[in-house]
UniProtKB/TrEMBL annotation:
It holds the Pfam family MFS_1. It comes from the Bacteria. Gene3D superfamilies: MFS general substrate transporter like domains (1.20.1250.20). It is found in: Cell membrane. The chain crosses the membrane at residues 20-44, 50-71, 92-118, 184-201. It comes from Sulfobacillus thermotolerans. One of its GO terms (molecular function) is transmembrane transporter activity. This is Major facilitator superfamily protein.
Length: 269
């Protein structure tokens, strides 16, 4: 039994690079949680309408859908850790600058710029975390890594929402929004400590990115045609995603949704 316990992979047996990467994922999702409440409060204070927040949900979903088509090929031809660092630094800098400029007016503009930057970087960040997993955690450790990563995503967002409330109450909405940006910068610092092996790029993928993009997606479609079960699972998941987005938009534009607190309740998982 003692030998079995020693051989069982745990969080402590993960490599330092894997642990730093999980810290980065956790910090990033704390920022995402803060964003949910801070953006709702900013838009509600600026416009007095929850419809604008519903429109931002549509913008987020459209950006995520379009850029997800590009994120995988981009990450496969680059270094995932650099993609994660760039994504977090860009989000952190834009959000921090926007939070400073909120006092100058045009709140909706600065919030929209921040939302576009955050959601433009999100698909690339997500694709990079999937690509990095096997590079920093091998064998049975990959299962532990993926399990902790899932918990870090959910736990980080819950903690972010819990932190945002007191920050908004005691310091104001702009400082809470700035804390969102700081969390992204801390996440970039964490992933910078990870020592990640270089991702080997196959010879046939070293040509022009644009010239091979269609080939990548053509291979995906051909694989889904062969694997009908996987295709149906994806269709079901997309349907659930669209249904969730529509229901959230309807909840945010409903007459009973008249405050940022009720918006967050409507957006809860």
């Amino acid at each position: 039994m003692a030998a079995f316990k020693q051989a069982t992979p745990t969080w402590k047996t993960l490599s330092k690079s894997a642990q730093w990467m999980l810290v980065s994922v956790f910090a990033t999702n704390i920022g995402n949680g803060i964003q949910n409440l801070a953006v709702a409060k900013l838009l509600y204070d600026a416009t007095g309408s929850t419809v604008d927040f519903g429109l931002t949900l549509i913008l987020e979903n459209v950006l995520t859908f379009l850029l997800q088509l590009l994120a995988g090929p981009v990450v496969d031809r680059g270094q995932p850790n650099r993609v994660m660092i760039f994504a977090d630094i860009s989000r952190g800098v834009v959000v921090c600058l926007s939070s400073l400029l909120l006092t100058q007016g045009h709140v909706f503009v600065w919030v929209a710029i921040s939302i576009i930057t955050i959601n433009a970087a999100k698909p690339f960040y997500r694709a990079a975390t999937f690509a990095l997993g096997p590079l920093v955690a091998e064998g049975d450790h990959l299962l532990i890594f993926n399990s902790v990563r899932g918990s870090s995503v959910q736990g980080g967002q819950m903690i972010g929402v819990a932190i945002a409330g007191p920050l908004i109450y005691w310091l104001g909405t702009a400082p809470a929004f700035a804390a969102n940006g700081v969390s992204y910068l801390l996440a970039a610092g964490a992933i910078a400590f990870a020592r990640v092996p270089l991702l080997a790029v196959p010879e046939n993928q070293r040509s022009s990115w644009w010239s091979t993009l269609w080939g990548d997606w053509n291979n995906v479609f051909r694989y889904l045609r062969r694997e009908r079960g996987l295709f149906l699972a994806h269709v079901s998941r997309v349907g659930g995603f669209l249904g969730s987005g529509v229901s959230k938009y309807c909840a945010c534009t409903d007459r009973c949704c008249r405050s940022p607190q009720s918006i967050v309740l409507a957006l809860r998982p």
